[in-house]
Q: What sequence folds into this?
């Protein structure tokens, strides 16, 4: 992300949210029953969660449900759009009023923007959408970039959802996978019905399993 764009983003956040509000504990329900059940209630605050989305498997439905859920809860959410692929016209306008949408062109821009909004402290959830980025570009991301994002997340209380086209986030506490494409017959179905039919596979790191065991 160009330096002037980073500066502009910082200025926008400072103007819109002059007081930083730290949240404590809890999590952020996604609003899709199968996803929330797999996560034990929702996205964990202060943690990264990776959602691996095969094309047509329901990643857009999960993102839409997260926007609806946070809107109902009167929580702010940020979307860092790694390949400028988000289509706001596909959602009702009132579902976007609490959303800050950061449009990026390449992974490097997306990581720079995510670092800013995660550290900002004014969001219940941040979605880093890398689905439109190539696997080659993502695998060239230095491990220190992921480490910086993980540390920034753990130092605050924002829940971070990383949407990826393939398993890519190193040492992630939670990884969910939407591997099966949704049936063509479901294309015109309501989003809440689609969310209820999502097929989720969960992969939890050994460290996370130890934390949950107490």
A:
């Amino acid at each position: 992300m160009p330096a002037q764009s980073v500066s502009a983003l910082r200025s926008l956040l400072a103007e819109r949210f002059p007081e930083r509000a730290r949240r404590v504990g809890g999590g952020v329900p996604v609003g899709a029953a199968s996803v929330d059940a797999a996560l034990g209630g929702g996205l964990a605050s202060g943690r990264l969660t990776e959602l691996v989305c095969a094309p047509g498997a329901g990643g857009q439905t999960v993102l839409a449900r997260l926007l609806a859920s946070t809107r109902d809860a009167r929580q702010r959410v940020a979307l860092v759009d790694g390949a400028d692929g988000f289509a706001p016209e596909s959602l009702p306008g009132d579902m976007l009023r609490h959303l800050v949408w950061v449009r990026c062109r390449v992974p490097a821009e997306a990581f720079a923007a995510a670092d800013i909004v995660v550290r900002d402290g004014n969001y219940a959830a941040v979605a880093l959408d890398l689905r439109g980025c190539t696997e080659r570009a993502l695998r060239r991301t230095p491990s220190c970039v992921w480490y910086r994002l993980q540390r920034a997340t753990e130092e605050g209380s924002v829940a971070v959802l990383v949407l990826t086209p393939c398993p890519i986030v190193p040492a992630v506490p939670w990884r969910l996978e939407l591997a099966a494409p949704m049936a063509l017959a479901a294309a015109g179905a309501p989003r809440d019905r689609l969310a209820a039919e999502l097929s989720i596979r969960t992969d939890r790191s050994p460290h996370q399993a130890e934390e949950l065991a107490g």
Observations:
- The chain is about 35% helix and 20% strand.
- The longest helix spans residues 3-16.
- The CA atoms of residues 130 and 173 lie 18 Å apart.
